[in-house]
Amino acid sequence: MAARNYALSRIGYEASKGYDFDDTASYQVYKGYNSSYQNVINAVNQTRGEVLLYNDKLVETLYSAWHGGISENSENVWGNTVPYLRSVADPYESDAWPNVNRIYSNAQIQAALVSKRYLSSTDTFENLDLSSITRFASGRVSNINIIYKDSAGVEQTKSVTKDNTRTFLGLPSNLYTVSYDSINGSYTFSGKGNGHGLGMSQIGARNRASAGQNYNEILKFYYQGTYIQNLILKASLGSITQSSSSLYLGNTVSFNASGTNGNGYGYLFKFIIKNDSNIVFTQDYSSSANLNYVPLNSGNYTAEIYIKDNFSISDYDDMKVVPFSIYNPLTLSSFSKDIQNVFTGDTVTLSSAVSGGSGSGVQYKYTVVKDGQIIAARDYDASRSFSFIPAVSGNYEAYVYAVDPITKNEYDVTRKITFGVIQRASIASVTASGNLYEGKMVTLNSISTVSDSTNINYKYEVYNNGSFLTSNSFSKSSQFSFTPSNPGVYTIKVYEKDGLSSRIYDSIKQFDITIISKPLILSTFPLSYGMTSKDVASLQNALIKLGYPLSGATGYFGSQTKDTVISFQKSRGLTADGIVGNLTYKTLNDTLIQKAGIKNLTF
């Protein structure tokens, strides 16, 4: 657009030379046609006939390589005010000069100024008056003074202004700073931008395009208050509709185009189908605005749709590219559950995966059926997984339905799996059997709710007053025994697990039992004839409980007590010496516990 406007605005400028403009940097550099420059060719064709106007007049679309972050007002460059060539800050480019700084010695400046006729050959350059530097609002140098001596040796001053502050030394731009090195006798120029700074920045335009701006937005930014108008009556493509029952391989893809503008005497349409970059089908210009095409391969396609007026002599007046993709049919590559053996109460997760199709946005629907009744379901969703918890045992059927969003089908593929659900066993009761005295074995026995299972395993843990005491590993035996060594509260934890279950355990029962102290507790050994103590009274009470005819618990170990002890020792096959030592003491406790009997507690 800018190149076209600039060329049109220059018509007649060089009439005396027999041409309007040349192909050098004096106008626009042009290096000839190159068929490989498809972006350029497309840009020319797609903007054919379009020009940029301001108040119905052609815009002089000046541009330079880059502005250094801000463009310039026209009067600050060439003196005349142009309303659309205004200084605007451009955040899309702020590049420094290539190869960084420019350093010039006095001799180099002398030669440059003489060459550009700022000084005559008889003048002698003295210095640049850095204090004379003034700037425009953009930051560009608006004035710099040259101090020199004429042929008579008289010091003179010459001011360099506006755009000449760039060209007088051949600098990339006049958006610079300058410093003087008195030791080396040289001037260092540091700056940004490249060119006069008017109108469009080519690098800024490129960066804006990369950021998503279109050519209309870019031109209106650099040329304030302008607008685009097409000077050629040509046809334009209106609506383009694409229809297909699905974009799966083997189905027909249809395109219908419409035209607008032009001379109003009809349109010609042309269709080109490409698979990647290869042309696979062409329907040449005709009055038909429809195309029906059956793709032979899956992949990425484009439909290039061209229109031109019946009277047009152009290859085309307008064209649009419609991308579309053709996919292999959708298939279910897997459908499974995450648990091999399913028990009631398990969380079962069904998962699916597909192949083919459009590759994104596939929706999945799940239904779980038992005895003909839907017991769990989820409508279409993007998640490939669905979880449910079976409450009862039996045979189940699970269905998955998958649909690709590019189709209008209720579903594209479906699959079924069947599986059984096992009733999860639990501990119905636990019996604790034993004398429930310290030092006496306690036997635990569990009963499961699933009596016909052949693979139920049990594990027991025993704690005394909160501290771990003993346990076993999972075993098919429902019994476990332990011997409490101390009186107190014992906590029993029973775990039940089916051998097919994936859980750590299927159920747990916890309860407490109280283990009491020995019925006879003596602190002094041995007890013998003639002793008097509380221990003797405890001994006498124990013998009375066992049915021996003592007159009472006097606390005195007399002949009656000795004879009774001898009688007990004889009945138990002990040495009948009438003395209560450790063995007699233990036997007395065992006899008392035996007399108390076995306790059976059910939990």
From TrEMBL:
Domain (Peptidoglycan binding-like): residue spans on this chain: 533-588
Domain of life: Bacteria
A Pfam cross-reference name: PG_binding_1
Classification via Gene3D superfamilies: PGBD-like superfamily/PGBD (1.10.101.10)
Residue ranges constituting the Two component regulator three Y domain according to the UniProt record: 265-326, 357-419, 451-515
Positions of the Sporulation stage II protein D amidase enhancer LytB N-terminal domain: 2-54
Name of protein: SpoIID/LytB domain-containing protein
Lineage of source species: Bacteria, Bacillati, Bacillota, Clostridia, Eubacteriales
